[in-house]
Design brief:
By secondary structure, the chain is α/β, with parallel strands linked by helices. The protein has 7 helices and 10 strands. It has a 5-stranded mixed β-sheet with strand order 3-2-1-4-5, with helices on both faces. Strands 8-7-6-9-10 form a 5-stranded mixed β-sheet. α3 crosses α6. The radius of gyration is 17 Å and the shape is globular.
Length: about 220
Amino acid sequence: MRILAIETATAVGSVALLDRGDVVGEVVEAVPQRHLEWLAPAIDGALRAAGWTPQAVQAVAVSRGPGTFTGLRIGVATAAAWARAAGIPLVATSTLETVAAGLEVEGLVCPVLDVRRGEVAGALFECNGAPRRVLDDLVAPVEALLARLPKDRPVVFGGDALVRYAEALRAHPTARLAPAHRWNPRAATTGRLAWARLARGDHDDPYRIAPIYARAAAAMGTQG
């Protein structure tokens, strides 16, 4: 199955093409406030580089948040419109799960995204193969997130919030920080997570899917 994966939840956007779980190509670029003008040309470029036509895409994957308002709105709308027009499956993944899986470590992983206003979006996953959620999405100050995490096991932190909050996160007694090149969610990882669901016959409704904005996650809680 050929999959187009879209990741626009943060200031670093990416598009990936996968054949089942194998990455055929990926485009990654810093696109702060430029997701709208960047996404369509990035998809076209990735398809041309892989020698795929748009009709060759058999499923679409997208990261649905938490994340930035504009980036998520554009990414989710593009993915849903493509799936509806082509009549193909859509899989929407949690951006925090995408970060956790992309760190490629085992044990407890806490992905953290900077959602401004002095807060982060975070969650906790047990990673041993596919990430297994331990703590639901939480949008709060760093100190409130740290208070929810276990203190008796190492916790690996990753995500773009480390740019601003690395020192604060090191206050956790068993904190370990992932390498900086793995902090941003990547479309290739989104695509691999989507393939795992597609292989089970699982996908989302492209007519009902909606982004999970950081403030909505704070109000309602999400499980991705």
